[in-house]
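Journal club prep, notes for RB
We'll compare a predicted complex against what the paper describes. Inputs for the cytidine-5'-monophosphate case:
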Amino acid sequence: MTTDFTVAIDGPAAAGKGTISKAVAAKFGFAHLDTGLLYRAVGARVLGGGNAIEAAKTLQPEDLDRDDLRTAEVAQAASKVAVIAEVRAALVDFQRSFARRAGGAVLDGRDIGTVICPKAQVKLYVTASAEVRAKRRFLELTGKGEVTSLEEVLADVKARDDRDMNRAEAPMKPADDALTIDTSDLSIEQALETAISAVNARWTSA
Ligand code: C5P
């Protein structure tokens, strides 16, 4: 079996990256890293009064298991620390060594196909309209008991898109050789089928 097989899945918040990444990992037996958690863990430390660069440099794998990383407040804090070049640089090695795991790895984020793993065997860019993504995130947050409105979530999604796409360091964008999957009008099954067949085409020939 090939020891170094990486699937890079990038795209904006709530486009379906997480669902697709988990399904691809389960289907092919790959390890999965949600790289947004690294930035969320740093963002959470900053909300707790810490320094962003220090937090990134001292980040431990157990920090990703904190159960308070999925809130809207932490998401915004994450996208603010993610513009800092030193924060991004401190998180590179962890992500690249994860990608080199024997047996294959799926990493999802914003810059995996462009910066972290430019040689990934499969690159997907999963996107959807801001309105569709806001609605999905609204249902997810209210389902977990967060009090918010659709308007507020849409404004948050747009603010985060804007920061993620327009930062100088590793801006969110599809890699030139990425397959874009727009999930706005796709069912989960259709999106998964597209992603799995793209991986399958490379994995069976690897
Ligand atoms: O994917 P998630 O919504 O958890 O990401 C939180 C934030 O972390 C994003 O809005 C983005 O600013 C940042 N991020 C990043 N690069 C990655 C993953 C996440 O800049 N590879």
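Talking point for the session: The mean pLDDT is 95.
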